[in-house]
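Researcher: Let's do a round of design. I'm pasting the structure tokens now; please hold your answer until I've finished.
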């Protein structure tokens, strides 16, 4: 049995929108899951293999990026960049969800080929976890000619995602709606591309088409990169119950419009946060943190609730046992503080001020994956690893 303790925590942000804080100054971890949250003096940490002094800093759940475009391994040919997944983990993101492996060179569009690619990606990332990050991949982009049996075959092989409808040849409700029904019948989560086209051969998709196709998730409602109109955003935020995804690599003005519309409509529990990278915008390791800064610094959204958009909201949508700090949850955790020089006195105040927090520890499954982040600004106060060691790559060649 492995046991870990994070002690001397200043603030515990739960990742839950309704109850955004946890009372306590310590978290006990047993066999990779959270066993207790409370006061250090009340926890049984005897025999702990790992002990971390948080130095009064803020503990948040590992963040979840709802929109990435991986290929294979930790390399993206879209921007010819290695270690982009490890780099995002250094931005506090411990789970990354594929919206389609669309940048695969020579990506097959025939039905046999696209199914094979999705199954291979799902299997590969189940075995490969760069720096301990959890990559949910294998998201086929639907093409004309697919039938229900194709979705049944994919589901039977372990594929649980459908990549962005609209990035392939399925762009209209007459083709898309039946496929979404088949995907849902077989337990698959469906994302749709919205706004202007992002790849050659893709199409603009408006609110009317989204409503008729009826996916689970309105992908990048603020554009990827070109946004829908505010009128269309209102139709989807106020007139549907679909999950609303706001991304970093989109339109910042309509990102703010979308979150304000969601707050006004009581739809914030449906909002999730993605990067939509790698893309033409680039590789953005701090994209999730930057989006949280934007949404809380420029609106009335409290920063602790902003964290929930990139944690508990996404975890609940995808039925993941992470993204929340609570008993029995996977111990995917991040320690952070206001960056040196910030007007904020802690990570929460820094977010509200528009400053990216400094990360000094990232953990997945109770294992420390990195201490001081190589991407965030330095934390004013940094956590100390008092006992234990830093883990690394899981899987590989």
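Researcher: That's everything. Go ahead.
Model: Designed sequence:
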């Amino acid at each position: 049995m492995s046991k870990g303790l994070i002690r001397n925590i200043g603030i515990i942000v739960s990742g839950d929108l309704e109850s955004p804080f946890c009372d306590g100054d310590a978290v006990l971890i047993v066999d990779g899951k959270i066993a207790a949250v409370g006061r250090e003096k009340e926890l049984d940490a005897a025999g702990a293999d790992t002990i971390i002094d948080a130095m009064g800093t803020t503990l948040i759940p590992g963040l979840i990026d709802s929109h990435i475009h991986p290929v294979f391994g930790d390399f993206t040919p879209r921007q010819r960049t290695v270690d982009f997944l490890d780099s995002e983990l250094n931005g506090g993101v411990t789970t990354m969800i594929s919206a389609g492996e669309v940048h695969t060179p020579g990506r097959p569009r025939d039905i046999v080929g696209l199914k094979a690619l999705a199954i291979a990606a799902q299997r590969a990332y189940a075995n490969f976890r760069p720096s301990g990050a959890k990559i949910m991949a294998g998201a086929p982009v639907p093409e004309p000619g697919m039938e229900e049996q194709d979705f049944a075959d994919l589901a039977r092989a372990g594929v649980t995602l459908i990549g962005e409808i609209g990035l392939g040849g399925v762009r209209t409700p007459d083709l898309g709606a039946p496929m979404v029904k088949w995907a849902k019948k077989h337990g698959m989560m469906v994302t749709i591309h919205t706004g202007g086209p992002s790849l050659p051969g893709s199409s603009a998709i408006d609110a009317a088409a989204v409503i008729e196709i009826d996916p689970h998730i309105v992908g990048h409602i603020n554009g990827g990169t070109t946004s829908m109109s505010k009128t269309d955003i209102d139709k989807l935020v106020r007139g549907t119950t679909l999950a609303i995804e706001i991304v970093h690599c989109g339109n910042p003005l309509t990102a703010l419009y979308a979150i304000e519309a969601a707050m006004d409509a009581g739809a914030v529990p449906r909002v999730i946060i993605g990067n939509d990278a790698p893309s033409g915008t680039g590789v953005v390791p701090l994209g999730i943190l930057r989006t949280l800064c934007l949404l809380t610094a420029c609106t009335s959204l409290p920063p602790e609730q902003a964290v929930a958009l990139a944690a508990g909201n996404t975890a609940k949508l995808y039925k993941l046992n992470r993204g929340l700090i609570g008993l029995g949850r996977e111990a995917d955790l991040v320690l952070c503080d206001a960056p040196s020089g910030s007007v904020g006195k802690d990570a929460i105040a820094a977010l509200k001020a528009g400053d990216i927090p400094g990360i000094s520890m990232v953990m997945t499954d109770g294992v420390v994956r990195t201490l001081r982040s190589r991407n965030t600004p330095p934390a004013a106060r940094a956590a100390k690893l008092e006992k234990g060691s830093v883990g690394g790559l899981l899987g590989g060649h």
